[in-house]
Structure to design on (237 residues):
């Protein structure tokens, strides 16, 4: 179940949660390698490193004050894990004093998501879906004066995406790189029926693949789809 705003917004409608059936299959197949068992094992060390930093920050702040705002510290921990695992970017947000680009992004996510609860336009769009033609007009125009939370978050993520595009030589295997590779490798065939990630320890007989039909499609993701899915994973985290 998705909101009216999400279905008609020019960015949100391109995400995995709103994609039509065939496009959903292609998009999911492109993303599944990010969730294979080896990738999950690599994330364990990454998360442990983030937690160690978290403990060090708490220990340092305890020397200065007896009362800590744990909610804010946990938000920074979550942001650190998400940006490092999904986007491969080490922001240093946990040790920052609130003046880094990651702090700005975190603040933007928090402020703009609150608009989904308080914003009058979001409220009326979800209460009166029968006026879908009006919401589609407001949320889908290219030169759109109506800014919703997704727009602000996407604008802050754009710098991370552009930085990754500019540095193509770095070897990365995170979710963002998989999507960017799919954008560039437009001629690579893909089996859209392979939607699950098998355990690497499992050995599948070669003969079993002979009876499975393979549909060849162009493997690609548009810039808008990359931005939309990056926003989706950031907000979900």
């Amino acid at each position: 179940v998705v909101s009216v705003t999400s279905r008609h917004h020019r960015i949100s409608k391109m995400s995995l949660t709103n994609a039509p059936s065939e496009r959903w299959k292609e998009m999911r197949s492109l993303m599944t390698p990010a969730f294979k068992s080896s990738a999950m094992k690599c994330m364990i060390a990454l998360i442990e490193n983030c937690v160690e930093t978290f403990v060090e920050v708490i220990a340092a702040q305890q020397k200065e004050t007896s009362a800590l705002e744990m909610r804010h510290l946990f938000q920074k921990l979550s942001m650190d894990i998400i940006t490092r695992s999904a986007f491969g970017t080490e922001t240093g947000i946990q040790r920052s004093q609130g003046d880094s680009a990651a702090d700005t992004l975190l603040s933007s996510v928090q402020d703009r998501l609150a608009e989904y609860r308080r914003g009058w336009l979001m409220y009326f769009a979800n209460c009166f879906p029968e006026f879908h033609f009006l919401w589609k007009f407001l949320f889908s125009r290219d030169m759109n004066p109506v800014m919703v939370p997704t727009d602000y978050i996407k604008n802050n993520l754009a710098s991370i995406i552009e930085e990754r595009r500019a540095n193509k030589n770095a070897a990365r295997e995170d979710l963002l790189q998989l999507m960017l590779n799919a954008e560039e490798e437009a001629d690579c065939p893909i089996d859209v029926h392979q939607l699950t990630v098998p355990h690497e320890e499992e050995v599948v007989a070669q003969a079993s693949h002979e009876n499975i039909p393979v549909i060849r499609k162009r493997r690609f993701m548009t810039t808008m789809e990359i931005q939309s899915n990056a926003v989706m994973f950031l907000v979900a985290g």
Q: What stands out?
A: Confidence is low (pLDDT under 50) at residues 199-210, 212-217. The radius of gyration is 20 Å. Strands lie at 189-191, 216-218. The chain has ten helices and two strands.
